[in-house]
Amino acid sequence: RNFTVGVLPGSIVPSLLQQHRNRHLEQLNQRHLQQQQRQLQQEEEQSPSMATSTTTTPQKPPPLPLPGWSTVEVSPSTPSPPPHQRSLHTAATSNHYLYIFGGYDGTSRVNDFYSFNFLTKCWAQIHP
Question: pLDDT per residue over 69-125, tens digit each?
Fold first, then answer.
């Protein structure tokens, strides 16, 4: 299952998830620029006579998405099933992980702990 992260417009509390997402997107954009620069350097090294006449600059990466809600794809090879839908839970991010603890599943309180790895896009249930 996919899940949605973000903040409501006008929210007073800054979203750690949104900050993590923006930081991750900035890193991806930086990698994209570096990759283009390396590719241009390799092309210039392979054909130096062409490099002087057809010098190009790296393309600017696409703009970062505006703050708000976005869907996060989940890997089909995730080792454990994702947590059930819930409300009143606690969530936090650290490095490239999202942690979710407890909450209410619509009928009762839940007392489980999950992590989501943003790099591998996999859920894992954490047992005590």
Answer: 667 778 887 777 888 888 888 888 888 888 999 999 889 999 999 998 888 888 899
HSE at residue 116, side-chain half, CA atoms within 13 A, is 23
Question: What is the model's pTM?
Answer: 0.49
Contacts of 30 (CB under 8 A, 6+ apart): none
Residues with Cβ within 8 Å of 52's Cβ and at least 6 positions away in sequence, in order, are: none
pLDDT over 70 at 30, yes or no: yes
In DSSP notation, the chain reads --EEE---TT-SSPPHHHHHHHHHHHHHHHHHHHHHHHHHHHHHHH-HHHHHHS--PPPPPPPPPPSS-EEE---TT-SSPPPPP-BS-EEEEETTEEEEEEEE-SSSEEEEEEEEETTTTEEEEPP-
